[in-house]
Specification:
heterodimer; A: Ubiquitin-like (UB roll); DNA polymerase, domain 1; 2 domains; five-stranded mixed sheet; B: alpha+beta; Aldehyde Oxidoreductase, domain 4; 19 helices; binds FE2/S2 (inorganic) cluster
Chain lengths: 157, 704
C-alpha cells in the first residue's frame, strides 16, 4: 500500500487488517501517536486522514491507500503550529499522554470550523479522555485559539 | 531545617547534583516525574538557589543503580521530601562552591558575587561552578541550612515544564515510545478473574502463528513474544480463544457492595485512644452512613514495560517505586537484588499504584524466558481495567452529639475498608500478578494497613475540628472481592466525603450556615483562613441567599467543604455550585489552597485543578462494578468519566505562606471537592445523597 504521511510518500507491506496506529508507530517511527484503548473511546491515537481526524487504532491501513495522513510530527517544520504553541503557553498537559490526540483534533477544528459553536467544541473534545484533569487548560487553549479568530469564544458555559 | 533522612544514605554532593558537564546542572532525584511536574519543581528549587537558568538543568529520575533512593513517589511528599533534600543539598553546595572560589580567587566570600554559574570578584576575576566541580563533588553535604523562611531563591518564572515542550513537539518522552535494537513485542493473557487456574492451552497452535518467537506458559501465566507488535496482538487474541480456564468459583463469603460492609468480618482497631467504655447509643443525637465504591486508576495509557536479561536483568518501568519493584522481581525470580536494575521511565498519569508494577513483572518473566533481547510488554485497555489494583471501596458511619449551644460535643467515626496500599516488595508475600501465577505460586502479601499519622483506611478520619470527645475506629475487612492498592489520597477521599457531608447535616440541625458552623469548631488559624478566603472568592453569602434562580425544573445549589490533607499536608477549602434536575451539572468550583511555601505557583494550580476535576469525575460518575466473580469493567464503555463538556469553571486562590515549609498539592482537593458537590446537591434539591457516585439514580434512590 502507498500513501502520504507528513508530505512524504510511503509504502507498507503491513497486513491489510493492521490498524494504521501500528504502521505509524512501529514501521514509520512516528511515536507521538498513542495507543490508549484500541476501541475508539479515548482519542489518544487521533491523526488526520485527508484532513479529517480519525482514531488510528481502528482505522485499517488498507483504507489509507492513496490518502494523506498527518501526525503530530508533521505539523511543524521550524515554527510550531499555533495549536502546539497554545498548548505550551497554557501549559495544557499534566502527563501529556492524551495531548497528541487533542492537538490533532484542535488542528482539524481550526481548519474546518474556525468559528465553532460551543456545542461543536464540546462534541469535538468529548471524543477525547484525559485522566489527569488538564481539561480546563485545554479549554483555555480553545479560548486562545478561537478568540484570535473571533474576538472571543468562551468555553465556560 | 533538619536534614532529610535520604541524605544519610547519600551523603555526597555528587549523589544529588552533578556539575561535571560544562554548562549543565544534572540533578539526580529519587522522585519520579509522573505528570505532576515534580521535576520542574525540583529544578525551580535548585535553579533558584544556585542561580542558574532552568534550561541548564536536567533532572534524572529514579534508577536503582544511580542516584538517591527516596522510596516511593507517592503521598504528596515529593516536594516535601525530595524538594527539601535538594534545597538542603543546593544550599550547602552553593556555600561550598563560594568557599572554594574564595580560595582560588583569594578574596573573602563576602566579596564574591554569583550569577549563571559564574562566581566573580568585584574587579572582574571569575571562576565557574564547572571549574570547581572536581573539588566539590566528593564532599559530604554539610550541616547548615537556613529555614525555608530564610532561604533565598531567585525568580524562575515564566514557568514552563520541559516535558510539556517535548510532548507538544512530539519528542520522545514516554517509556511506551522507546525503541531498542532487536526489541521484541509481547502480550500477556490472563483469565478474567486472576484466581482462575489454567486447564489447558494448545501451545503448538500458537507457536505456528506469524512472527511468534516464544510462548511462555508457567503455571497460570501465559505470555507470547513476537517480532512485530501486531503479531503479538493477534497471537494474544488466539490464546484468548484457545486457553481453557477453570471457571472461577468464589471461596467463602465476600462482601462485594460497600453499603453492606458494616458487620462484615473485619479486624477492628481504635485509631484514637481506646475509650474506657463506648458511649451509650442514646447519647448520640445524629448518625449517618456514607460509602464510596471501588474506583479505577484508569490511566489513559495502559501499562508498558521493557526488560532485557543480559548479565543482569534490566527493567524499564513507570513504577512509582523502583526499589520495591526490584525487591519483588528478585524474590520471585530467585535472583539477588544486585542482579536486577530497575529504571524509571515516564508513563501516562497513574494516580497511585496502577498496573505499572504488574506489567514490569510480566516483562521480567518474559525476558528471562528469552534472554538477550529487550522484551516490550504492552498491556491492553482491558488488561488495565480488569487487572489493575483498584482504589478501595469504603463505608463510613458517623455519630455525633450536638449540644444545645449548637456545638458538637462527641464524635464517633467508624470506617470499613480494604487495604489502601499493596505495593510490591512486602515481606509477607508477593503482590504482583505474575508472581502469583507462575509456579510455584507464592503466597499473596497481606501488608498491614498504612499506620497513622498518614493512615490508609483512616487517612483523614480524624476531623480537623475542635471537638471535646473524638473517637475513631477502623475496620480492615477480612476479604476483598478484588485486589486493591493506593489510589490518589487513599482513604482520605471517602473519609473527608463522609465527615464534610456530616458537618453539613449537623450545621443544618443546628440551624447554622455551614461555613459559620465549621468556623465555630475550628481552632486552626490556617484552616480558618482557607475557609474565609473561599467564602470571599465564591461570593458565598449572596449565592446562598439568592435562591431565586430556579430555571424551570433545574435547581441551583452551593456547598462547601474543607480538609487538611493527612492532617499535616495542604489545606484546601472548596465551594461548589451545581445545577440539578434530570441531570446533575457541576458548574463552578472555587478553591482556596495553602501549601506553605509555594515552589511553583503554576504547578500548585495545575495539581489542584487536576485534583478537582479528577474528584468531580470520581464523585459524579465513577464506580467499578464488582460482582461475586470480580470486576465487571472491561473498557471505557463500562466506566464513564467526566467529559470535556461537563468540566466546571474553576477558580483557585493560593494563600502564599512562604515562611512555612512546602507541602505537596496533588492530593489535597479530592476529598473536599466530593463533599462540596454533595453539599451543593443537597442545597439544590434538599436530598442528601450519602453514597458515591452522585448519579441521578443515586439521587432517586436517596429520595425514596
Ligand atoms: S486508542 Fe484509539 S481511541 Fe483510544
Ligand atoms: S494529561 Fe494525562 S491523560 Fe491528559
Amino acid at each position: 500500500m502507498q500513501f502520504v504521511v507528513n508530505n512524504e510518500e510511503v509504502t507498507t507491506n503491513a497486513a491489510e487488517s493492521t490498524p494504521l496506529l501500528y504502521v505509524l508507530r512501529n514501521e514509520l517511527g512516528l511515536r507521538a501517536v498513542k495507543y490508549g484503548c484500541g476501541t475508539g473511546h479515548c482519542g489518544a491515537c487521533t491523526v488526520l486522514v485527508d484532513g479529517r481526524p480519525e482514531n488510528s487504532c481502528e482505522f485499517l491501513v488498507s483504507l489509507v491507500e492513496g490518502c494523506r495522513v498527518t501526525t503530530l510530527e508533521g505539523l511543524s517544520n521550524v515554527e510550531l503550529h499555533p495549536v502546539q504553541q497554545a498548548f505550551i503557553e497554557e501549559q495544557a498537559a499534566q502527563c501529556g499522554y492524551c495531548t497528541t490526540g487533542l492537538i490533532m483534533r484542535l488542528v482539524s477544528l481550526l481548519d474546518t470550523t474556525p468559528r465553532p459553536l460551543i456545542a461543536e467544541v464540546h462534541s469535538a473534545l468529548d471524543r477525547h479522555l484525559c485522566r489527569c484533569g488538564s481539561h480546563s487548560r485545554v479549554l483555555k487553549v480553545v479560548d486562545r485559539l478561537f478568540s484570535a479568530e473571533l474576538g472571543g469564544v468562551t468555553t465556560s458555559s | 531545617m533538619k536534614a532529610p533522612d535520604s541524605l544519610k544514605a547519600h551523603p555526597l554532593f555528587r549523589d544529588w547534583i552533578d556539575l561535571s558537564q560544562q554548562g549543565l546542572v544534572v540533578i539526580h532525584s529519587g522522585k519520579a516525574e509522573i505528570g505532576q511536574g515534580i521535576h520542574f519543581a525540583l529544578s525551580s528549587i535548585v535553579g533558584g538557589i544556585l542561580e542558574v537558568p532552568l534550561d541548564w538543568i536536567n533532572v534524572r529520575g529514579p534508577d536503582t543503580d544511580e542516584g538517591p533512593n527516596e522510596g516511593l513517589t507517592a503521598g504528596s511528599l515529593s516536594v516535601q521530601q525530595g524538594g527539601t533534600a535538594l534545597a538542603y543539598v543546593a544550599d550547602n553546595l552553593k556555600t561550598c562552591l563560594l568557599e572554594a572560589a574564595s580560595q582560588h580567587l583569594a578574596v573573602p566570600v563576602s566579596e564574591l558575587s554569583c550569577r549563571d554559574g559564574v562566581i566573580k570578584t568585584s574587579d572582574g576575576r571569575k571562576i565557574s561552578y564547572w571549574e570547581l566541580s572536581d573539588e566539590v563533588s566528593d564532599v559530604k553535604v554539610g550541616e547548615c541550612l537556613q529555614s525555608w523562611a530564610d532561604l533565598e531563591t531567585h525568580d524562575n518564572r515564566p514557568e514552563r515544564r520541559a516535558e510539556i515542550d517535548a510532548i507538544v513537539r512530539g519528542n520522545t518522552h514516554f517509556l511506551h515510545d522507546l525503541v531498542w535494537p532487536d526489541m521484541l513485542h509481547a502480550r500477556v493473557v490472563r483469565p478474567r478473574n486472576i484466581l482462575s487456574h489454567l486447564v489447558t492451552l494448545d501451545v503448538d497452535a500458537i507457536t505456528v502463528l506469524p512472527g511468534v518467537i516464544h510462548v511462555e506458559v508457567d503455571g497460570d501465566f501465559i505470555g507470547v513474544i513476537t517480532e512485530q507488535e501486531d503479531q503479538a496482538i493477534n497471537a494474544a487474541l488466539a490464546i484468548q480463544k484457545e486457553a481453557i480456564w477453570e471457571s472461577f468459583r468464589k471461596t467463602g463469603d465476600v462482601t462485594v457492595h460497600p453499603q453492606d460492609y458494616i458487620g462484615a468480618p473485619a479486624e477492628s482497631e481504635w485509631v484514637t485512644a481506646q475509650p474506657e467504655a463506648e458511649p451509650l447509643e442514646q447519647s448520640w443525637t445524629q448518625s449517618a452512613t456514607y460509602s464510596r465504591p471501588f474506583i479505577a486508576h484508569a490511566s489513559i495509557g495502559p501499562s508498558c514495560a521493557v526488560a532485557v536479561q543480559g548479565e543482569r536483568l534490566t527493567v524499564w518501568s513507570h513504577s512509582q517505586g523502583v526499589y520495591l519493584l526490584r525487591k519483588e522481581i528478585a524474590r520471585v525470580l530467585n535472583m539477588s537484588e544486585s542482579d536486577v536494575r530497575v529504571i524509571h521511565s515516564p508513563g501516562a498519569g497513574a494516580y497511585g499504584h496502577n498496573g505499572a508494577d504488574d506489567c514490569a513483572m510480566d516483562a521480567a518473566v518474559l525476558a528471562r524466558a528469552c534472554p538477550g533481547k529487550p522484551i516490550r510488554v504492552q498491556w491492553t485497555r482491558e488488561d488495565e481495567f480488569l487487572h489493575e489494583p483498584y482504589g478501595s471501596a469504603m463505608q463510613v458511619r458517623l455519630k455525633a452529639s450536638l449540644g444545645g449551644d449548637g456545638r458538637i460535643t462527641h464524635w464517633l467515626h467508624d470506617v470499613w475498608s480494604h487495604r489502601h496500599s499493596r505495593r510490591p516488595g512486602h515481606d509477607s508475600g508477593v503482590g504482583l500478578l505474575a508472581a502469583r501465577q507462575i509456579d510455584p505460586g507464592l503466597p499473596a502479601a497481606e501488608p498491614p494497613d498504612v499506620p497513622m499519622p498518614n493512615g490508609g483506611i483512616a487517612r483523614n478520619a480524624i476531623p480537623i475540628y475542635g471537638i471535646d470527645d473524638v473517637m475513631v475506629r477502623k475496620h480492615l475487612l477480612a476479604t476483598a472481592p478484588v485486589r486493591t492498592s493506593s489510589l490518589r489520597s487513599l482513604g482520605a477521599y471517602g473519609n473527608i466525603f463522609a465527615i464534610e457531608s456530616f458537618m453539613d447535616e449537623l450545621a443544618e440541625d443546628a440551624g447554622t450556615d455551614p461555613i459559620e458552623f465549621r468556623l465555630r469548631h475550628l481552632g486552626d488559624a490556617r484552616a480558618r483562613m482557607a475557609l474565609e478566603d473561599v467564602m470571599e472568592i465564591s461570593g458565598w453569602e449572596s449565592r446562598r441567599s439568592d435562591r431565586s434562580d430556579f430555571k424551570g425544573d433545574i435547581a441551583r445549589g452551593t456547598g462547601v467543604a474543607l480538609a487538611r490533607y493527612k492532617g499535616s499536608g495542604c489545606y484546601v477549602a472548596v465551594v461548589c455550585e451545581v445545577e440539578a434536575g434530570q441531570t446533575i451539572k457541576l458548574c463552578h468550583v472555587w478553591a482556596s489552597v495553602d501549601v506553605g511555601r509555594v515552589i511553583s505557583p503554576d504547578g500548585v494550580r495545575a495539581q489542584i485543578e487536576g485534583g478537582i476535576i479528577q474528584s468531580a469525575s470520581w464523585t459524579l460518575k465513577e464506580r467499578v462494578l464488582v460482582e461475586d466473580d470480580g470486576s465487571q469493567v472491561f473498557g471505557w464503555e463500562d466506566y464513564p468519566t467526566l467529559p470535556f463538556s461537563e468540566i466546571p469553571q474553576i477558580d483557585i486562590s493560593i494563600l502564599e505562606r512562604n515562611d512555612l515549609p512546602p507541602v505537596g498539592a496533588g492530593e489535597g482537593a479530592q476529598g473536599p471537592t466530593s463533599a462540596a458537590i454533595a453539599n451543593a446537591l443537597y442545597s439544590a434539591l434538599g436530598v442528601r445523597v450519602r453514597h458515591l457516585p452522585l448519579t441521578p439514580d443515586e439521587v432517586t434512590r436517596a429520595m425514596q
